[in-house]
Amino acid sequence: MASRSFPEMPTPSSLLSAYASMSTSIMLFRTMFDQLFPRQLRRYVVDAVRFYWKPKSSKLTLVFEEKDGMSINHMFEAAEAFLCSRINPDSERLRITKSVKENHINIKFADSEEVVDSFEGIMLTWKYVRHQPQPSGGGDDSGYGGGKNSSGGSFSLEKKYIELKFDKKYKEIIITSYLPLIIKKSQELENEKKVVKLHNLQSYGGGPGGFKESVNLDHPSTFDTLAMDPKMKKAIIDDLDLFLKRRDFYRRVGKAWKRGYLLYGPPGTGKSSLIAAMANYLKFDIYDLQLMNVGSDSSLKKLMLRTSNRSILVIEDIDCSIQLPDRKGAMPMFSKLPDVKPVRDSQFSLSGLLNFIDGLWSCCGDERIIIFTTNHKERLDPALLRPGRMDVHIHMSYLTTEGFKTLAANYLNIHDHHWRFREIKELINDTKVTPAEVAEELMKSDNSEVVLEGLVNFLKRKKTEDETTKDGVHYGEGEVREPKKAKVIS
C-alpha cells in the first residue's frame, strides 16, 4: 500500500522569522506614513476608511419623545399605556407608585427597561428611557428647560422617550399597521381603566418652560349627590351629552371643539362640587390654572399646550385672582377692590387669555371644556362673557327645597317625608343659606332628630341675621346688592 506524502510543516524558527519581518515592514510603513502625511490628513484618511468599511446595521429605531414641540406627543402616551399592559413577569427593574388615596399599586417601567413584542412574525424591542433632571441655568422653547424654583435654586424638567427597534425591511408594515394598532389598544385601555386626574399647571418666573404635576381626583361628587334643582341638573347633563357627540358638527361649522361654562354665585353654593361632578361624569381630567402663576401671554400659551384632549380647564375666582389688564392695557374698574390681588407681570393680558379661549390658539386641542368660576359676575369684562367664550352661564344659587331633599337623602338617609321638613322648607324659602352651611349642620350628629332640630334653630338664627343685616352681599332672583366697599365704579 502506497504511503501518502505530506508537505513539510514550517519550523518554529521560520515562523518567528516571518513574523519579525512582517512587524518590521509594518513599523517602517507606519513611520513613512507619519512622516509623509500631516496629522489632519492622516485623521481624515482613517475616518474615511472607517466610514466606508463599517458594517451597516439592519436595525431601525423609532423614537417617541414625550413632547412634540410645545404640545404633548400622543404617540408617546399611547406607547406608554400599551407597554404598561405588556410588562414582562421576568422584568428585572420596575417602578412602583401608590398615592395615599389609591387602593392599588401602580406598576410602571423603570429606566432602560426593555419589552419584546411581536407583530405578524416581526420581532420588536421596546425600551423606556428617562433623563433625570440636572441643574440648569434657564429654560428653552422645547419645554424641557428649567428656571427658578420656589427656593431660588435652578432646575430642569425630566425628559422621557420610548424607543422601538426592529428590522429595517419591515418599516412600512410597522408604521402603517402596527402603530395604528398601538393607538387603538391604548384608547381601549384608557376607557377601561380611566382614572380622572387633577393637574396643577405652573409657570416658574414667567419662563417659557411649564411644569405640570398631578394627583388622582378622588372626589365623590356626582350629579346624584349635588344639592341642585333637578331641572338644572338635567339641563347640564343634556348639554354635556350633546357636546360629546357633535365633533363632526363643530368641524362642519368651522369651530373649535370646545365648550365654555361660567359658574357664578355666592361662596359655598357648590361650584367646585359641580366641576368635580362634571369630571366624574365625563371621565375628563381637570387642569387647575392659577393666573397668579402666569407671567406672560407666552407662558400662558405654553401651559395651555400641556393640557390634553378630553379635559376640563378650570380658572377659579377669576374676578379676584389678579388685576387682569384689558385689551387696551388698562386695568378694569374692579382692580381697586380690596380682595383683588395685583398681577405679577403686566405682560399677561386679557387679550392673551381670550386668544386661547376662542382665537387661533383655541384649535390646539379637541373635546375640551373651559370653566370659569366667580362670586361676582358683574365684575367680569363683558368680553369674557359673550357666547363662543362662555357658552353656558350657570347660576349657583342659595339652597332650594329640592336641593335640601338631596342633602337629607345623602347625609341622613331620609328619602321620604319627615315631619320637620315642612318647617325647614319654609325657612329655606325665607332665608339665604348655602348648601355648604346646611351640609355642615347635617354632619353634627348621627341622630337625625337631633340634626334636624339643630338645623331648624340654625335657620331661624340665619333668618334673623339676614333681616337685621343692612350691608353685605345679597343674591336674590334678578337682584344683586353689593357691599359699599365693593361697588363697581361706573
UniProtKB/TrEMBL annotation:
Which SUPFAM superfamilies did the record assign?
P-loop containing nucleoside triphosphate hydrolases
What Gene Ontology molecular function terms does this protein carry?
ATP binding; ATP hydrolysis activity
**Which Gene3D superfamilies has this protein been placed in?**
6.10.280.40, P-loop containing nucleotide triphosphate hydrolases
Database matches in PROSITE patterns: AAA
Q: Does the keyword ATP-binding apply?
A: yes
Q: Where is this region: Disordered?
A: 465-490
Under catalytic activity, the entry for this protein gives: ATP + H2O = ADP + phosphate + H(+)
Report keywords, A-Z: ATP-binding, Hydrolase, Magnesium, Nucleotide-binding
Residues spanning the membrane: none
The residue ranges of the AAA+ ATPase domain are 257-400
Instruction: Name the domain of life this protein comes from.
Output: Eukaryota
InterPro entries noted in UniProt = AAA+_ATPase (IPR003593), AAA_N_dom (IPR025753), At3g28540-like_C (IPR058017), ATPase_AAA_core (IPR003959), ATPase_AAA_CS (IPR003960), Mitochondrial_chaperone_BCS1 (IPR050747), P-loop_NTPase (IPR027417)
Q: Could you say which cofactors this protein requires? A: Mg(2+)
Q: Which GO terms describe its biological process?
A: response to stress
Please report which protein family the annotation says this sequence is part of: Belongs to the AAA ATPase family. BCS1 subfamily.
PANTHER family, per the entry? BCS1 AAA-TYPE ATPASE
Q: What is this protein called?
A: AAA+ ATPase domain-containing protein
